[in-house]
Write a structure and sequence with these properties.
Elements: H1 2-31, H2 36-42, H3 48-82, H4 88-94, H5 97-108, H6 116-131, H7 137-149, H8 152-163, E1 167-168, H9 169-176, H10 186-200, E2 204-206, E3 241-244, H11 246-255, E4 263-264, H12 267-273, E5 282-283
Antiparallel strand pairs: 1-3, 2-3, 4-5
């Protein structure tokens, strides 16, 4: 037992030294584009094993950065393919500071586009924001925030409500997952949280009738007949239907509606060279 304690004490300074060095590497790597200075500064400080660990860390970090840059380059190319820059209005729009601000925000928040589907949504939003003016740039900024905040399951629910106006929670679950879990399960809690997110985010709402001027009409609660239910409302309720808000419908138009390409390129060549070569673009 005593020998084990002595061994732990001997190893503790080494672990502390590695943790301190790793923190320093992270700070420097995030502050400058090149990390070669880390190795020269650490040459006389770290052991061979510790330098190997750092090498592996930086190798994986740089690979991740390269993948992200490749995704951004592909997205920019796909947006350019969908814009008719012969159109004076579109050419002027993409040169404005307002549109550049949207592009910067989209790529600054790229970590939120963790799937290919979300990357397509980013592409669609930026393409539609250049080609149409159905809403303000403030609203488009909000749509980009939604991509960062919501999961793919959120967007599947939005699509189901868009395609089936008045659909209930239970009907949506039946379309997406089939088997209905217990009310006290984690799946039921997650499903309720999902609808809470979309409702408080003003993406969806329960159906409300309006008058000729668009004002919502107050509803009176129906009188209950028979004994009251002894259980709470189900996460998979089959009574009240949902609809998209105006914001939700505009989001579907901007994020889920694809602008058809005006040009096409060879994907294999693009991925190999990480750039679109002259001659690869052809009229669609």
């Amino acid at each position: 037992m005593a020998k084990a304690d002595e061994t732990n004490k001997e190893n503790e300074p080494k672990r502390k030294k590695w943790h301190k060095a790793a923190r320093g590497a992270l700070q420097v790597a995030g502050a400058v584009p090149f990390v070669g200075g880390i190795f020269s500064a650490a040459a006389g400080y770290w052991s061979e094993q510790e330098q190997k660990r750092l090498n592996e860390f930086i190798k994986h970090w740089l690979a991740m950065m390269e993948d992200e840059m490749r995704e951004k380059q592909q997205t920019v190319a796909e947006i350019a393919m969908r814009l008719d820059l012969h159109d004076e209005a579109i050419a002027e729009r993409v040169s404005t500071q307002e549109y550049k601000s949207l592009v910067k925000k989209a790529f600054r928040d790229w970590a939120g586009a963790e799937s290919n589907k979300k990357r397509e949504f980013v592409r669609n939003i930026l393409s539609n924001a250049a080609a149409t003016d159905l809403t303000s740039d403030d609203v488009v900024h909000l749509f980009l925030d939604w991509l960062h905040s919501y999961s793919e399951l959120h967007f599947l629910v939005i699509a189901e409500i868009y395609n089936n106006d008045g659909i209930t929670r239970g009907e949506i679950w039946q379309r997406l997952r089939q088997t209905r879990p217990r009310e006290d399960s984690a799946e039921a809690d997650l499903y309720k949280l999902l609808f809470h997110d979309l409702s408080t985010g003003h993406v969806i709402r329960q159906h409300r009738p309006t008058d000729a001027f668009g004002n919502f009409i107050k509803q009176t609660a129906p009188k209950r007949r028979g004994p009251a239910s002894q259980t709470l409302k189900s996460a998979f309720d089959d009574e009240k239907g949902y609809e998209l808000t105006s914001l939700g419908r505009q989001f579907v138009h901007y994020a889920m509606t694809e602008v058809p390409p005006k040009l096409e390129y060879h994907t294999d060549d693009y991925e190999r060279d990480s750039s679109v070569k002259e001659g690869e673009l052809t009229d669609a």
